[in-house]
Automatic annotation (TrEMBL):
It is found in: Cell inner membrane. It comes from Paracholeplasma manati. The keyword Cell membrane applies. The chain crosses the membrane at residues 265-284, 642-670, 691-717, 737-757. InterPro entries: AAA+_ATPase (IPR003593), ABC3_permease_C (IPR003838), ABC_transporter-like_ATP-bd (IPR003439), ABC_transporter-like_CS (IPR017871), MacB-like_ATP-bd (IPR017911), P-loop_NTPase (IPR027417). This is ATP-binding cassette domain-containing protein.
Length: 774
């Protein structure tokens, strides 16, 4: 069943060829005890390794079952070793971190035997060699003779047809040697045993057949077999395909990790650092994004959609557009070196779009579903003439030629408060008095530090002091002077009166009173109003009603070609419409603010406004500004930038920790070289070896990932508390289940990839070389 034909084995060292085996011809019987005798270096081990399929011959042939092995693939050799061959070595070659039972079982694992069957057979094998009482010990807790018995039990567990023993008693005392030898002799009763020894006494005492080797040549064979075709058929070797399940690899790796708890723990920690970094960044970004979204839908949702009469959009870079001055090419770079100053036309860089807020549009706006908005407020450019009495008894005039007091328009000291009291009061606290309700009631807006600028104080006619009480302002009155009192006609031109006292004391003046003081609250997303005096839309409407019939308006209506304020005809800069709006003869608004009820409602309003533009030319289109979006998109892009930078940093740590795991795995491969050799000798395929290491890195990756996620969850708790104390935003570190799972998978993947190269190196190790390493 096993025949060696002219087997040669050469080792090439440098340019010298060394013949370890030089033409070996032996044929073995199915059932005999062969001793191969020879001096050290005569090639005994080499011969045994070639017979066992652990090493490859250089030339000649090894015939198994009448079949040449020249065309054997790795897989064929693997199954040959696993099912037909049992190896016993001089140095026992047990795997030190496994128990005795596991050492024996491992050969069965490799051939895919189920666990119950495995245990039963391993115990039986250990019973047969007389070690049943020691099965839970580690190999380093046994004597030499006991270790060799374990090795024999392991070699026999698959019931191989051939047992190969390489000086099995070489390291044992003579008494133990005798016991082991009689055990092997027993075994040889029903199989082929080929034993290598340099001890002629042992050979002659136990073996049926002695083959003497000198310098790689057979010099004596005491009982040669002359081929006899008749008995060949029943001498066939059974060769089965072997395979180890991945689960088995995982279990065995898990055991290995457990035996090296300290190292496994450190590896896991190293791997988790990167994961913790990435998890924290992801959580932070998730939290911040949720915060911004919350901000948008809660607070920023209240911010108006603004439509102003004039929209400026910068569409060109510096000096661009159709400027007759410097061209783009001239000023292509920032911070030029030449000592030249360029002229450029700012207006050429700006596109001005005029929103036509005519009746048609206002009517269209009336059609907007009223449940979508809190209020629609319109700004008018009516100029009001307001007088205040100073602390010195003199008078001061406060001009309001426009009424947008929001931070997004230009500001004046006295302004119209957007017509959305609920929204304003959600952003502002009333510190004293009440929020105005009537047309003649005013509100004082102070900043978050309770300050009012000197400029405002002077304009209000208040003497400058270091500080004031709320009552210094509550109840303070002003007078609005109507056109008929304010203007005096002179040759068709209307000139403002100069005597302020007369105006103030005139009975036509309308008294306004500060009834409340408000300040932006802590929760507000931004300051909607500038500081100063605010009045209600009601006042504008009240005044427009009065002024529409005033003398100056009537006069302007009657002579539409002449500007009644200057007596000159209208030029392009000042138009009839503008003058009429200023003096109160035209109620068309110059701006519209729509206050949506919610974030979703805002989207619907936008869609409604967009629908107005359908079929209209560029010039007729209405362009609106979404203030909230401007604010939140700035924040969002900031968050994105921060996230990318942090993620890059965390990514680097992830890569570093992966490389570390790769290195640790490589060290483990080097450390376990011997074990790899042993595994190969008992039939492990290359794939089984790489599986074991891959399973190990996978386990470490999973553990790192899970550990990293746990640490992140733990760190998130105090981090959230600290951040809440610092910036009053709660739950900014949020680890979602998706992200957690994703990161665990990522960790497992990365470590697996990092371990691929070391595990390949392990799989490709030459089993003979691996066995020789100590
Ligand atoms: P034995 O087991 O009879 O003591 P070996 O079979 O181990 O002898 O070795 C036979 C000869 O082959 C020895 O001279 C040894 O030095 C040589 N040899 C064995 N393995 C190698 C190798 N990997 N590279 C080079 N020479 C080797
Ligand atoms: Mg040897």
């Amino acid at each position: 069943m096993l025949t060696l034909k002219n087997i040669k084995k050469n080792y090439v060292l440098g340019n010298q060829t060394f013949k370890a085996l030089d033409g070996i011809d032996i044929e073995f019987r199915k059932n005999e005890f062969v001793a191969i005798l020879g001096a050290s270096g005569s090639g005994k081990t080499t011969l045994l390794n070639i017979i066992g399929g652990l090493d490859r011959y250089t030339s000649g042939d090894l015939i198994i079952n009448d079949k040449s092995t020249k065309s054997f693939k790795d897989a064929d050799w693997d199954s040959y070793r696993n099912t037909a061959i049992g190896f016993v070595f001089q140095s026992y070659n047990l795997i030190p971190h496994l128990s005795i039972l596991d050492n024996v079982e491992i050969a069965l694992r490799l051939s895919g035997v189920g666990s119950v069957e495995r245990k039963k057979r391993a115990k039986q094998a250990l019973y047969d060699v007389g070690l049943i009482d020691h099965i839970h010990k580690r190999s380093n807790q046994l004597s030499g003779g006991q270790m060799q018995r374990v090795a024999i039990a392991r070699a026999l567990i698959n019931n191989p047809a051939i047992l190969l023993a390489d000086e099995p008693t070489g390291a044992l005392d003579s008494k133990t040697s005798e016991q082991i030898m009689s055990l092997i002799q027993d075994i040889s009763k029903d199989r082929l045993v080929i034993m290598v020894t340099h001890n002629p006494e042992i050979a002659s005492n136990y073996a049926d057949r002695i083959i003497r080797l000198v310098d790689g040549k057979v010099v004596e064979d005491t009982h040669p077999l002359v081929s006899n075709t008749s008995n060949k058929e029943k001498d066939r070797l059974e060769l089965k395909k072997v395979s180890m399940g991945f689960l088995t690899a995982v279990k065995s790796s898990f055991n290995n990790l457990l035996t090296k708890k300290g190292r496994s723990l450190i590896t896991m920690l190293a791997g988790s650092i990167g994961i913790i970094g990435v998890a924290l960044v992801l959580s932070l970004s998730t939290g911040m994004t949720q915060y911004v979204n919350g901000l948008q839908s809660d607070t920023l949702a209240g911010f108006p959609l603004t439509i102003t009469e004039v929209v400026r959009t910068n569409t060109f870079g510096p000096g661009g557009g159709n400027s007759p001055f410097a061209s783009d090419a001239d000023i292509a770079t920032e911070f030029p070196d030449e000592p030249i100053i360029y002229a450029y036309d700012e207006l050429a860089n700006t596109t001005i779009h005029t929103n036509v807020l005519d009746e048609a549009f206002l009517t269209y706006l009336d059609g907007l579903e009223s449940s979508l908005y809190n209020s629609i407020s319109t700004t008018k450019s009516l100029s009001m003439h307001i007088l205040a009495e100073t602390s010195l008894g003199t008078y001061t005039s406060i001009s309001t030629n426009q009424s947008s007091g929001t931070m997004f328009g230009s500001s004046s000291l006295i302004f119209e408060v957007p017509n959305s009291p609920d929204f304003i009061q959600s952003q502002y606290d009333v510190l004293a008095g009440t929020y105005p309700n009537e047309y003649n009631e005013l509100v004082l807006v102070i900043d978050s530090n309770n300050r009012l600028s000197v400029e405002i104080l002077e304009a209000l006619g208040v003497g400058i002091e270091e500080n004031y009480t709320f009552n210094d302002f509550l109840g303070k009155t002003f007078k609005v002077i109507p056109n008929n009192t304010y203007y005096t006609e002179n040759n068709g031109v209307y000139i403002p009166q100069s005597n302020q006292e007369d105006m103030y004391t005139s009975s036509d003046g309308i008294t306004l009173e500060i009834v409340g003081i408000i300040r932006v609250n802590e929760a507000a997303s931004s300051e909607l109003l500038s500081t100063g005096i605010g009045y209600l839309t009601d006042l504008t409407d009240h005044m427009l009603a009065i002024e529409s019939t005033s003398d100056i308006v009537t006069a302007q209506l009657n002579q539409p070609n002449t500007n009644v304020l200057t007596g000159m005809s209208f030029n392009t800069q000042v138009t009839y419409d503008q003058v009429m709006k200023t003096i109160g003869g035209d109620t068309t608004p110059t701006g519209v603010q729509i206050y949506p009820v919610s974030f979703d409602a805002k989207d619907e309003i936008k869609a409604y406004l967009d629908a107005y533009n359908v079929g209209k030319t560029q010039n007729e289109a209405i362009i609106y500004t979404d203030t909230a979006e401007t604010i939140s998109s700035t924040i969002s892009s900031l968050i994105n930038t921060i996230t990318i930078v942090l993620a890059a940093l965390a990514g680097v740590s992830l890569v570093v920790s992966s490389i570390m795991i790769g290195i640790i795995t490589y060290v483990s491969v080097v450390e376990r070289t011997k074990e790899i050799g042993i595994m190969r000798s008992i039939g492990a395929r290359k794939r089984d070896i790489s599986r074991i290491f891959n399973a190990e890195t996978l386990l470490i990756g999973l553990a790192s990932g899970i550990f990293g996620i746990i640490v992140t969850l733990i760190v998130a708790l105090p981090a959230n508390v600290i951040i809440e104390n610092l910036i009053q935003v709660n739950n900014i570190v949020i680890l979602t289940w998706n992200n957690a799972l994703l990161l665990i998978l990522l960790s497992a993947m990365l470590t697996l990839v990092a371990g691929l190269i070391p595990s390949r190196i392990a799989a490709n190790k030459d089993p003979v070389v691996a066995l020789r390493t100590e």
